[in-house]
Design a protein that fits this description.
Elements (H helix, E strand, L loop, with lengths): L1 H7 L2 H4 L16 H10 L1 H6 L6 H5 L4 H15 L3 E7 L7 H15 L11 E7 L8 H16 L3 H4 L6
Parallel strand pairs: 1-2
Length: 164
C-alpha cells in the first residue's frame, strides 16, 4: 500500500520529509489498519509493518525472533503446499511488491533454511507478458500443482469413513 500511496502522490506521502515517513498511521493508512496488517498479513506477521524495508526481507531473523516465528509458521504453514502465480505485467498487484517477502519465505523454508523442518513446498512462478489475469499457461500450471497436491496425500487419508 505504501507503493500505491507513492505512485498516487497522496498528500500523506508527499507532505513529509522524507516522503512517506508518516504514511503508516496517517488518515490514509490508520494505526488500526497497521495493527490488522501486523496481525493477519503474512509479511506483517513475520516482519512487522513499520520495519518492512527491503533490508528486513534480506536478513534471516535473529535466533530470538526465530523462536517467536517458528510456532507461528508451524501453525500456519507446516506441511503446506503453496503456489504463487503472478503476471509480470500486472500493474494492479505488481510482483515486485511481493517478491522480497517471497524470497525471504523461500530462504526460510529451503532445505538449508531456518524453518526447513516445516516441510513447506513453495512454488513461485512469474509469467512474462501476463497482467492481472489468469492466463491459459497459469491455469495449466495451477491444475498440475493441484493434481500433484492430491496425489501426495496418502491413500489412507483419502478414505472416507461411513458416518452410519
Amino acid at each position: 500500500m505504501s507503493d500505491r500511496a507513492r505512485l498516487s502522490k497522496l498528500e500523506t506521502w508527499t507532505a513529509t520529509t522524507p516522503p512517506g515517513s508518516s504514511f503508516l498511521g496517517s488518515v490514509d493508512f490508520p494505526i488500526g489498519l497497521v495493527k490488522v496488517v501486523e496481525k493477519y498479513d503474512p509479511a506483517g506477521m513475520c516482519l512487522g509493518v513499520p520495519s518492512r524495508s527491503e533490508e528486513s526481507f534480506e536478513q534471516a531473523p535473529s535466533v530470538e525472533r526465530q523462536r517467536d516465528l517458528v510456532p507461528l509458521l508451524k501453525h500456519c504453514l507446516e506441511g503446506k503446499r503453496i503456489m504463487n502465480l503472478a503476471g509480470a505485467a500486472d500493474k494492479l498487484v505488481p510482483y515486485a511488491q511481493a517478491e522480497p517477502y517471497l524470497r525471504w519465505l523461500k530462504r526460510a523454508t529451503s532445505p538449508h533454511g531456518w524453518f526447513k523442518e516445516g516441510r513447506v513446498t513453495l512454488e513461485d512462478i512469474v509469467f512474462d507478458g501476463v497482467g492481472h489475469e489468469m492466463s491459459p499457461d497459469m491455469l495449466s500450471t495451477a491444475i498440475r500443482f493441484i493434481e500433484e497436491s492430491l496425489e501426495s496425500i496418502p491413500a489412507k487419508s483419502r478414505e472416507i469413513a461411513s458416518k452410519i
